[in-house]
Design goal:
The protein is mainly alpha-helical and about 150 residues long. The chain has 2 domains: about 50 residues, no CATH class; about 80 residues. The chain has 5 helices and no strands. The model has no long low-confidence stretch (mean pLDDT about 85).
Length: about 150
């Protein structure tokens, strides 16, 4: 067995989870290897510290504030979503009516109508692309919580 494989089994040895054969192999290796002896000693210290730790129940006001903040965040998110959807519907409908009136106007040349519609289509696609990119960046920003 390689040295790295012995190191991986040290915690199992310390916890008494190894089979007899593995335990004997580790014990034989520990007699010869000062590096693994040192690491086992560090694991024992760490285990002692971990065993001395105790769970403390947080006070009731912490839980009350926690739940209040969750409700506040949910309410705000829902309100932003509804506001955004409503604004999008109104803008879409207004834009549709504007384009419809523009197309139906017989006084405007056909080439001008086509040019303006192509320009509007390009702007809409550009807007959607930028919006999608910003949302992706916002969701995947590792440093979003860092205050500047």
């Amino acid at each position: 067995m390689k040295h790295e494989e012995y190191k991986k089994l040290l915690v199992g040895y310390l916890d008494g989870e190894l089979k007899n054969k593995e335990r004997e192999l580790i014990e034989n290796h520990l007699r010869k290897c000062p590096e693994c002896q040192k690491e086992l000693k560090e694991f024992k210290k760490l285990r002692g510290v971990m065993m001395s730790m105790k769970y403390q129940k947080p006070p009731d006001e912490v839980w009350e504030n926690y739940w209040k903040s969750i409700y506040n965040r949910l309410e705000r998110r829902i309100s932003w979503i509804l506001t955004s959807v409503g604004a999008a519907i109104l803008l879409f409908y207004g834009g549709f009516k504007l384009v419809e009136d523009f197309i139906k106007n017989p006084e405007i040349a056909l080439l001008l109508k086509i040019g303006i519609l192509v320009l509007l289509a390009g702007l809409v696609i550009l807007f959607i692309s930028i919006l999608r990119e910003r949302i992706f960046i916002f969701k995947h920003d590792k440093y979003r919580e860092v205050k500047r």
